[in-house]
Every structure is written in C-alpha cells, then in structure tokens.
Design a protein that fits this description.
This protein has 475 residues and is of the alpha/beta class. It has helices at residues 2-9, 21-36, 47-57, 65-69, 93-102, 104-121, 138-144, 157-164, 166-171, 206-219, 235-242, 255-258, 274-278, 298-311, 336-339, 352-356, 370-378, 392-402, 417-428, 434-450, 456-474; strands at 12-16, 40-46, 74-79, 128-132, 148-153, 224-227, 247-249, 285-289, 314-318, 344-347, 361-366, 383-385, 406-408. Residues 1-9 have low confidence and may be disordered.
C-alpha cells in the first residue's frame, strides 16, 4: 500500500500557460498527453481567459470535463491576472504585460499554497510546475514549494536561442544601442547566421525587453526545458542549447496527434466554414489570418483587400473585430463584401485547424505566429508570410529561407495590392508553386515522422517524462 501511495505522489503536475491564445492551445495538448501517460494535471487559466472561453463556447465551466469523463485526471482552476474582467488587454497590452511581470506571481503563489494544502488532504500533492517560459517567477515559486521546475517554450529553438543570448545582441550592438547594427548576426551559438531584420521585434520595446530579459534569466534556473519544435528541423540550434540545459524538442504539439477529444479553448465564437469549403475545388482557396493578438494597420488591410480582389482567387479571410486595436466597423472598402461574395468568405473567427486541413485549402497567408506555422506545416499547406511583431519575423526566416515551405509577402517597406495579387497567384497556381509544394510535403513528413513510435519527438517526450519522474522522486 505504501508503494502505491508513493507512486501516486510522484505524478501531479501544475500547468500554467501564458494568458494568450497561442500559448494556451499547446499547453492544453501537452496536458492531455501527460495525462495519457498517467500524470494528474491541474491546469490553470486566468479568470479572464476562462470567461472568454466559456462565453464564446457556451461550454461547461470545466473545459476538461470530457477529458475527465474519458478517464484522464485533469483538474481545472482559475486565477486572477490582477486586472478587472472588463479591462481591454489587447488595447492596453503594455500595462497588461507590466502586470504580468510585477504582480501576477502574487496570485500564483496564493493559489499554489491553497492547492498544495487541498491536495495534501487527498494524497495527491503537486510535485511539478510546468510553466510557460515567458513567465518571470517560476523558479522562485518552484523553490518555495519544492517543485520540479519545467519551462515550456511554445516557439522554435531559433527564437529560444535569440532570447537566451540577448546579452550577446546587446554587447554587439544589434540591440539596445542608439543605432542598432543592421548587418547579419553570426555570433549566436547554434545559429549559423541571421539578418538583423529577422530578429524578434520584442527587442525594440522596453517593457517587452524587460519581460524577455527577466523570463530568460529565470529559464536558466529551470530543471528541464521542453519546446514545441522538431529535432530534425533545428538540429544545430537544439544541440547548442542542450550543451547547457536539459532541453527536449517534443513538437509539433498539435491536437490531431494527442487525442480525439475536443477541448474548448477559443476566446471567440467560431464560424463554421465547412459548407462553404465543401463546394470549392481542391487546393483553390487561400486562407488568410493574422492570429489572435497582432495588430494590423488599416493601410495594410486595404492593400490586402484590393490584392485579394485582383487575384480572383477563392479565399477565407479571418478579420478579427479588434485587428486594428479597437472595434472599427468600416475596415473594408465600401461594398467590398458584396463584390467578392461569390469567392470570398470574411469571418470574425473560425476553427483554424479545421479550415486548413480541408482539401479545398491551397495556401495560407499568415502573420507567422508559431502555432499557425506548425498547423500549416502539419497539413502540408504552403505559406505566404507577412510577419508583424515578436517571434514572427524569426519564424518567417525558418519558413521561407531554411525550410522553403513559404514565400515572403512584403519585399519592400509596405504591402502593395499588386504584390499581394502576384504572390497569391503564384502560390495557388500548382505549376508555379510546384517546388514549394514538394518541400512542404517533405517537411510535413518530417513533422509526422517525429511523432511516430520511434520518431525523435516521441522518443524525446518519453525521455522527458522519465527524467521528470526521476527528478520528482529526488525532490
């Protein structure tokens, strides 16, 4: 009996994602996969994120209720992020990030203390913290409660290496000087060479710089680091990181691989595009989306609208209500939707994986958020890349120049309708984009193979689980 009780004590992980859509989704799928390995999971969303999901999905307050019914022990709690529910986190992104840096850990500490007390009563104390790498507090909290500290990086190893070596970028004048150098960066360990224009734009903002600097000082103190990438696609970068840390590439973390369960996670109501897509020819539709957070200026939206019209290609365009930073009704040219109604579907939000996995989709015009890149590659859909902020610029480098599964949209300083039209026509035409489609199919195969029984990511995940259990037993 004592042996059984000890076994139970080893496997309870607390999972806390950053409160953004692109971080919540992979954290949910990671939780499902760990639960399928016998872990008890307590998943923490902020109260705001929880309210958005339940409002948009009309779902059970416990988003993991179906997972629990299937036998997975995933518990669910919510926590304040320090702001009122009606505070506009998108429009006031910098004050919100400052709150995450300076005040969020107090709420985390309070919740973990309560959960630890409650869990001790039912003989399932939390023994492991799996927190997003962009938090600044995990090492402090993990040390206080004697938890094994796992840092979960939801982006590629290239971006991890750049953030990790922010000090080198500062020393060499590519960041933090009055005139940042514009020449290529060739001194980051594990990174062959990268244009200064491909460095994450986070570096140009003082608040976000503070967040990245503090977060990656904290990442250095973690016991294990796991990342949503694939060993074969970033071998040199991953090997370099592994020389300093227990780092496991366990991607792609996409829902299709881990479970048939549908876990509600969308922050907005999803329009069902299936019927519209079902009547379109195979590979004839361009999917356009700039993700859940990034803001786009109105001039670019208008050029994109005209370019889509000039291309005469079928398209689904996700035009988020707050894509300009506020709810503006007249984003598109007057009468635009009527003019394109026969071949264009404009929606406020949709289930992206459901759309891009449809046979009618022939390309994805994307902001290059990492989740979008991963999902597109998983489905073998080539990309047109129009990165806006943060890691998206470095992700574009991987997509366009390293893996050659996409093309760049913006060759000049700004988007033009003529360029939009030309790039769309090139991508959707199977003859002109034949080489791109061949490489997309090859990288897709690499993604799928990584999750096979003997695939690198599956092997790495099992090694991660084994090391995690070992460290828990020694804690």
């Amino acid at each position: 009996m004592a042996e059984i009780r000890e076994q139970k004590l080893l496997h309870h992980a607390l999972v806390i994602p950053c409160p953004f859509q692109g971080h919540i989704n992979p954290a949910i799928h990671l939780s499902l996969k760990l639960a399928s390995k016998g872990f008890i999971i307590t998943f923490i969303n902020t109260e705001f994120i929880h309210s958005q999901i339940t409002k948009s999905q009309s779902t059970d307050p416990n988003i993991f209720s179906k997972a629990r019914e299937s036998g997975l022990d995933i518990r669910y709690s919510t926590i304040s992020d320090g702001f009122p529910l009606d505070f506009d986190r998108n429009l006031n992104s910098l004050p919100f990030l400052e709150g995450l840096i300076n005040g969020f850990s107090v709420h985390v500490d309070e919740l973990i203390g309560k959960l630890m007390s409650d869990n001790c009563v039912d003989d399932h104390p939390i023994t492991c913290l799996i927190a997003d790498s962009f938090f600044v507090w995990p090492s402090i909290v993990a040390k206080k409660y004697e938890l094994v500290n796992v840092s979960f990086f939801t982006e590629p190893a290239l971006v991890f290496a750049l953030y990790y070596h922010l000090d080198l970028l500062e020393e060499n004048g590519h960041f933090g000087s009055d005139e940042n150098r514009k020449d290529r960066v060739n001194y980051i360990p594990g990174v062959k060479s990268i244009e200064a224009s491909d460095l994450p734009s986070l570096f140009q903002n003082s608040v976000v710089h503070q967040l990245i600097y503090k977060a990656f000082q904290d990442v250095r103190k973690s016991d294990i680091i796991i990342a949503n990438t694939v060993q074969e696609l970033e071998p040199e970068t991953i090997t370099s990181i592994q020389e300093k840390h227990n780092f496991y590439a366990i991607g792609p973390i996409v829902s299709a691989n881990f479970t048939d369960l549908t876990i509600p996670s969308s922050l907005w109501s999803e329009y069902d595009c299936t019927q519209w897509l079902d009547v379109k020819p195979r590979g004839s539709v361009l999917y356009v989306s700039f993700g859940s957070v990034a803001l786009v200026n109105k001039e670019d939206i208008l050029e994109l609208a005209h370019g889509l019209m000039l291309s005469e290609v079928n398209f689904i365009w996700v035009l988020r209500f707050n894509i300009l930073g506020q709810d503006e009704k007249s984003i598109l040219p007057l009468g635009y939707e009527e003019k394109v109604k026969d071949r264009g579907l404009i929606v406020p939000w949709c289930n992206q994986t459901k759309v891009i996995s449809h046979s009618a989709i022939g390309g994805f015009l994307s902001h290059c958020g990492w989740n979008s890149v991963v999902e597109s590659i998983w489905c073998g859909v080539p990309l047109i890349c129009s990165p806006l902020v943060t890691d998206q610029l470095a992700n574009r480098k991987l997509v366009v120049y390293d893996w050659k599964v996409g093309i760049n949209l913006r060759d000049g300083e700004s988007i033009t309708r003529e360029e939009v039209c030309d790039k769309i026509k090139y991508l959707i035409n199977e003859e002109t984009s034949s080489n791109l489609r061949k490489t997309s199919a090859q990288v897709k195969e690499t993604f799928h193979n990584a999750l096979a029984t003997n695939g690198s990511s599956n092997v790495n995940f099992n090694k991660f689980v084994d090391e995690l259990k070992m460290k828990i037993s020694l804690a």
